[in-house]
# Entry
Amino acid sequence: MPVLLTRVRLVAPALAAACVALSLLGATPARADDRQAAIDALNQALQRTDLAAQSGIEVKQFITYRAPFGLAWTQPGVNTVLRSGSRLRVHVTAAPDGSGYTSVRLMPSLRLIAAGGVDPRSRAMWATVSMLSSPGQARALSGGLSSVTALTGLEPFASYLDDPGGGPTSLPYPSSLAQKVLLPPHTSAGMASAWTTIESIPLADGGTLIRGSMPVIEEGGEEEGEVDTCVRPLVEITVGPDMAIRSSRWRETCPRGGTRSAGTRTYESTAAYGPVVVKGPVSPSRPASSVLS
# Structure
């Protein structure tokens, strides 16, 4: 009997160790599978959202901030720095015919900061002076215009509308702009490496919650080598039963001296799909040719 007990004592720890080893071996593939499932769900949601937006899309985004906020890196590309205030509303509508309207307003007063779009009547591009690059703003302001005067017929002067954050403006592509506002930076198909963590959670209504975090994006990354020194520790994307994105929320913290305005901000966006009413240029307005020629 003592010999048998000794053998049991020796075997039991070995069995326990083997079980732990097996469980650890199985854990890594399970986590990898969960991550890939979440990435697949996000990629499918991006495709379905693009498809749903073809029938019309309206996105409203609220940005909460405290420190001075340079808007050049927001999705509409507004060449303005806000020194005070705590909340912005970005509103984008896009119709199937290619017309669209974008506005950025200070909350709760709804004071207009910038606006632009494609006129549903003339199909011409327009934008307020605050959407222009610095040389364009200088010319317009020296002519006595305010920052929220709309300039119409901007196609021949598109160079003045280059996004201050780099690259061309998205105003002529309102449906694409609406989807950019709906999602945090670096959220696009094939950007799996932009997520530190990512998971998908089924919701009671048949939809899905995609949740995770994003690190700093180093130079030479997947999105045209962009450097993004901000960290986004909480990103939540809610997808409907049809796999179109319904809402999103994320928080970002950016350091001083980085590529974007320093500080911590939260972004909350909602989307609706279907027929929309697209507004024309805000008032007052002037032909761009009378200001920029």
Q: What stands out?
A: Confidence is low (pLDDT under 50) at residues 1-27, 220-224. Residues 2-53 form the longest helix (52 residues).
